[in-house]
Design brief:
By secondary structure, this protein is of the alpha+beta class. Helix content is about 15%, strand content about 45%. It contains 6 helices and 17 strands. Strands 1, 2, 3, 4, 5, 6, 7, 8, 9, 14, 15, 16 and 17 form a 13-stranded mixed β-sheet that branches. Helix 4 crosses helix 6. This is Secreted protein. Keywords: Signal.
Length: about 300
Amino acid sequence: MLYTSSSLAAVAGLLAAGAAALPANSNAVPVNATLGSALWINGQPAERVSDSTLAARSISGTCGKGEDVVVCAKRLAQKFSNQAVGDQEMPKRTYVWKTNPKYHNKMGWADFTLEYTPVFGSCKVSDPVIVNQGALFACNLEGGCSQSFTQSRVVTDTVNYGYKVGTKVNVGGDIKFVSVSTEVSTEWSQDWSKSTEVTTTSQRTYNLANGEVCAPTTVQIQMDCIGDLKDAKMIAHGFRAQDPHFVKDFKAWCDAAFAGPRVFDDWQKWTGQDFRVLCNQVKNSRVPRNMYLRSSATDGSSWTVEGCSLSQ
């Protein structure tokens, strides 16, 4: 729900001196109320500027005076919302599975090697979303009001076929140039592909002048990215160097394995590896993965705008 000047209604008489909390779903706002100016961008206090300054200098790194943080975040996101991050290849990886000696005679292979090159990218920016919002409160005290809130933000930890990946905002020196890029950590994970969300909290103190209102709000931007495997192949080795071996396209092998329900069970018995999990990852490799945009990618916190809002 968006509050406008027409909704500044007759609840002023209900507000005692000091800060009064209003129900989060209430559209009751004191007459002649203005939006509080508190603002943090990526966890750092930020100064608001006038609309004329925003227009004249094309500033992309802050909000205008009286601008709702949700509206501001959407405007900031437009600076890079039309960009698409291209695919980025990661260092080639190799997995080796030794076969169970109990089944050597049956299989005829000593081990299996999976070689592949992880790819991550094709990222697109989606609309900013509210990840945390407190109840609307108003200040009705001549000397102003101060109130603290615990606000949360969400970080997405994403592993793409073994590599930890992230997306980040790059800002030029004049803060007019904004771009988005992917970043790959050298950190290796035994997980194939997964995304987990971690929520962190911080304490924010909102200082409001008499007649100002605020619903403390945290806004973040989401990205849709795609992970894939390139040149994935399965190689089987015999027990001696001169023994024959075979090389198969791993995606084609998975397709054939799905057609034969006992294949996965047999291979898990022979190698101890659940290839059903790996093949499902290959099958779903081009499905977009939703993750939050970060301020400094794999080691940084999420890109956030925190401040006052009347949007719900």
